[in-house]
Amino acid sequence: MPKLNGARSRRSKSRKRQFGETKPNFGLEVRKEWEDFLRTEGPKIKEENPKFYYHLIGRKLPKKYQDPFRGIKPTPAEIIPVKIKEKTEDEVKREKEKNDQEKLIKKAKDDKFINQQLVDMKEKQRKEYNRVTFEKEQSLVFWCDAYTQGNYRSIHSEEYKSKTEKKYEYY
Questions:
Q1: What share of the chain is helix, strand, coil (3-state, %, to 5)?
Q2: pTM for the full model?
């Protein structure tokens, strides 16, 4: 059954409640004021400080405002001669020899490091192989007593002879 005094009842002509009007929507009012402010003051702010304007409206600054030299015509630059100290042949030779020596030293260090890593890796592989082999063979190795019979049958025993030798010849 619908309420007679409800805000959305069929009999209610407006959104009024029994004890007064609905609560005001402050977000809507603020948005209206903000849009009015941007409509009136926005063009002025955009002209004076476009970076701030686009920050206010929450957009990225367009490329045409990002160029710092916009509107400035470039002037031809004057070429100023600069003297560069040229190296003599001896200096070039010394630098080349020094670089070659540094390369050789670095290569020797790298080779030594790589060889050490290979030795370490082979040692690890050997130990791992030995460990796995030991675990595999461990099941076959055990203490035994020479005087007690194990899982084997002596060929000299009576049991073996009775099973293998035929007692009767039928034909």
A1: 55, 0, 45
A2: 0.31
